[in-house]
Specification:
4-stranded antiparallel beta sheet, alpha/beta, 4-stranded parallel beta sheet, 420 residues
């Protein structure tokens, strides 16, 4: 399956030479080749996750480039984009060069780097976009925080348009009205006596950023869409021709805020888990193309941090090693998306948004390939994750589908099926 070339469930051979796709055809015959027998499996372009937190530098007790990229590899991802909310924030060429050197030394998958929109992610001063892009930044995002100043956001959109890179917005309206929020505002927050944040906090910022993108004729990418209202705002903006794209996370199309009662802080994320109606709307947005991408927002934390309890624990869950299985189990096997559509949202669509040469099995492309066993059944056991993070609400979930083999630039990895 290769959505970039509109190949859907064709039985073909694929030849890799020197880390590149050299040929793709029926019954390829060459001498002295190493053969991978993928009978009964599905070959797709290497999966891409455009929303990952690797935590390095400065937060290595949560995750490192090495452990995070091994987690990606085990989950079938051959390319990821790392967010900039490290310590220090990746807001300057000096920090960016340091991080890219670490990636070059430690990463086992392709890592693309986002830089922050504002200096120190303070929301007060735009970064030097020209220098950052020249030195390797592929997107800008103050992920974890919205850019509240509309003029700075407008200037950032214009700067990103100049370089043809996306500005990725964490849509959350922050003011005194929402101080101290923990989970979604609804029956669960009222039952637990916890301050909840309403859907409108997200939707107000989605509406503002769509308006700014429209006014500047720039590309805005809405991160981790979680509400029905946001889905509809994006849907209508696309119909008007606004350059807006969006992503959804597995936890937002599989779980509701009721999960907080069962999983506690391991179901605490930002934006929060929402209502059943919101989950249905996110799924509908994936089905009709309103939401372009499935990503993870992989956000590892140390166990002692999540053990602080619902009110004091940090937001976020890990997602790289459960994402593909949740997509197959909850979307594909339930008839919400075809496998082709799901793979499209995890390969060529994020590649196009980030303007990176990935997400395809075209001849000449890097041999980044994920080979999937759709029938493999397994039970989520965080103790066996490659990630340092164990913070998942999917513990003990029985899922179907796993990457059998992950290939990065022609190098083959098989440790994913260690769940046997």
């Amino acid at each position: 399956i290769d959505p970039a070339n509109r190949i859907n469930r064709e039985k073909l051979d694929l030849l890799i030479i020197d880390g590149k796709v050299a040929d793709i055809d029926k019954n390829i015959s060459v001498n002295d080749a190493d053969i991978i027998n993928a009978s009964g499996l599905v070959i797709v372009p290497g999966l891409i996750d455009m929303h990952v937190h690797l935590r390095e530098p400065g937060q290595e007790h949560k995750e490192t480039i090495k452990t995070g990229t091994r987690s990606a590899l085990k989950g079938g991802f051959t390319s990821i984009m790392a967010m900039a909310n490290t310590t220090p924030v990746i807001d300057s060429v000096q920090v960016l060069r340091d991080v890219l050197a670490r990636i070059n030394d430690q990463a086992v998958v392709n890592v693309f780097q986002a830089c922050s929109v504002t200096v120190r992610m303070s929301g007060e001063m735009l970064v030097d976009v020209d220098d950052l892009v020249v030195n390797g930044a592929v997107a800008l995002s103050d992920d974890g925080k919205p850019v509240m100043n509309s003029q700075i956001m407008r200037n950032a959109l214009i700067a990103c348009k100049k370089h043809n890179i996306p500005l990725i917005s964490h849509c959350e309206w922050i003011d005194k009205e929402y101080e101290g929020w923990i989970i979604n505002k609804g029956e669960v927050s009222e039952k637990l006596g916890i301050i909840g944040i309403p859907n409108s906090a997200e939707e107000r910022m989605v509406k503002r950023d769509i308006k700014l993108a429209d006014e500047t004729d720039s590309h805005i990418h809405i991160a981790h869409v979680s509400t029905a209202g946001s889905v509809e705002l994006i849907r209508q903006a696309k119909k008007r021709g606004v350059k807006v794209t969006a992503e959804a996370m597995p936890h937002h199309f599989t779980l509701t805020d009721s999960a907080v009662e069962k999983y506690g802080a391991n179901a605490k994320m930002n934006p929060p888990l929402r209502s059943k109606a919101d989950v249905s709307a996110v799924i509908e947005g994936l089905k009709d193309g309103t939401i372009d991408v499935i990503a993870t927002d992989h956000a590892p934390h140390a166990e002692y941090e999540k053990a602080k309890g619902l009110k004091d624990a940090p937001f976020g869950i890990v997602g790289l090693e459960t994402c593909l299985s949740l997509v197959i189990t909850e979307l594909v096997n339930k008839g919400q998306l075809s496998l082709y559509e799901a793979i499209e949202k995890m390969t060529i669509n994020p590649a196009k948004i980030l303007n990176i040469k990935k997400g395809t099995l075209s001849v000449g492309a890097d041999a980044d390939i994920t080979i999937i066993d759709l029938d493999k059944e397994w039970t989520v056991d965080p103790s066996r994750f490659e990630s340092k993070g164990r913070n998942t609400p999917f513990i003990d979930w029985k899922l179907r589908g796993l990457p059998a083999i992950t290939i990065v630039k022609g190098k083959e990895y098989r440790f994913s099926l260690s769940y046997d």
